[in-house]
Amino acid sequence: MKSKLLKTVVLASSLVFLNCGDDVTSAISDFTASLSSSSAGEVQPGTSSDSQGTAGTEISSSDAAQPTSGTTVEAGSSATVPGSSADVGPQVESSSAAAPGAESSADVAASSSSDDKCLASSLPNACGDAPASSSATAPAVSSSSVSAPAVSSSSSEEKVESSSSEAAKPKGVFLAEGTDETKDQLKVKYIERTGHDGGGILAYPEQLSNDQKHAVVVWGPGGGTEPGAYGGIIRRLASHGFVVIALRESPGNATQAIPALNWLEKKNKDPNDPLYQKLDMTKVGCSGHSMGGLESEQALIKDDRVITAMLNNSGDLGHTAMSQVSTSKTIGIVYGEGGMERPNAEADYNNHGVKAPACLIKMTGGQGNECQQGECGWGHGSGPWGGMAATVAWMRWHLGGEDNRKADFVGSSGKYINGPIVGERGNWKGQCKNF
Can you tell me the distance from the alpha carbon of 390 to that of 245, in angstroms, rounded to the nearest whole number? Predict the structure, then answer.
């Protein structure tokens, strides 16, 4: 500074010899005093206020990745900007982007394109960090400059990572994009003579999801009926995205349903199994025909993994089982207008002790005046065949999280409350409570 002032005085003296006069002498004195009074707040070359900064001190998009010549910034070190009372952010690791350097409020040092390169760089001063050394080439920041902000947990880099990861993560369990429950949607792998006792059927989509888990449905056959007799509804459920295990038999007390779920749990934990980490065992539903319905109802009562059940042409003989279902679970019954299960289905639902959200869905107008084996209209075999759509829609609602389907079951005008049985003769007549 002294050298610069001396040069100025010499220049002023030469002007005196060339242009003698009191005005010139006075101007020189004022100019010299001005230099002296402003020396304490001078902005030196290399800051954002000086367009011709010292080479290597101003970070641009072309040289942002190069450290200042003659200085070294080590990963993990904290550097202080010379001439400023503020530190430049927290410690920086080699894999993290560094905090931007000090900027003038009137002139941002780096453009948006250089900011992008700064975020992508792993070099210590790629974002304008001040070097640890107090080299003469390091820029000084005046007291009027804006101090470099410390990097907080809400930095732009962290926000980008957080939002991108959330956007890439699908929510809920996997369901087929096709939503029509009256049709098959996906190709299915159908494996017979399997399960915990070698007598069941396992079915699931040929293409399992890599991003989402699959919900599970246990199907129970009617008394004395092979599980293969229900291939239609087993395939339909699997085609909508569920992993289905059909039991060899249904004792009606959950002694087959629970071991079947334990078997699936093991497959879900076996790295050599196709179902490894593909199942959401907190999203399990049970369904079945006749005795299979009773097996489903008892599994819902006894197993915490099971959160919903849809009984087909079934109902508790003692008319009390539905009253034992937890209020945190849901249950429904599909039955035929003329089926032998009708008294038990209605009595089970109408028990005053039922507190769980429940539905009773009747199939009406089946065979007109024709009667078979003492049953007129939709009989004991209606649910798993002509009425399978109701079970698929129920599972998509309660396991798949399609809450828009609530309007199909609950209220006064939904398709399963007062609507046609699509593709079949007759209509649905439904009622629900506790929703």
Answer: 19
Distances (CA, A) of 302 to 74, 223, 298, 312, 325: 62, 21, 6, 19, 9
Q: Does the pTM of the predicted model rise above 0.70?
A: no
With a CB cutoff of 8 Å and minimum separation 6, the contacts of 26 are none
d(CA 332, CA 320): 14
Classify strands 200-205 and 243-246 as parallel, antiparallel or unpaired. Answer: antiparallel
Phi, psi of 429 (to 5 degrees): -135, 100
Provide the pLDDT confidence category of residue 171 given band limits of 50, 70 and 90.
confident
Query: In 2-149, where does DSSP find H-type helix?
Result: 2-18, 22-38, 112-120
Q: For 88, phi and psi rounded to 5 degrees?
A: -90, 85
Question: Cα(86)–Cα(107) distance, rounded to whole angstroms?
Answer: 19
Quick: pLDDT tens for 38-61: 444 433 333 333 333 333 333 333
Handedness of CA 185, 190, 194, 199 (dihedral sign): positive
3-state secondary structure of 2: helix
Residue 172, pLDDT above cutoff 50:
yes
pLDDT value of position 166: 52
- Residue 314 in this model has a pLDDT that exceeds 90: yes
- Contacts with 378 (C-beta within 8 Å, 6 or more apart), sequence order: 336, 337, 338, 339, 363, 364, 365, 366, 367, 386, 387, 426
Regarding predicted confidence, which is higher, 393 or 111?
A: 393
Rounded Cα–Cα distance for residues 373 and 199 (Å): 30
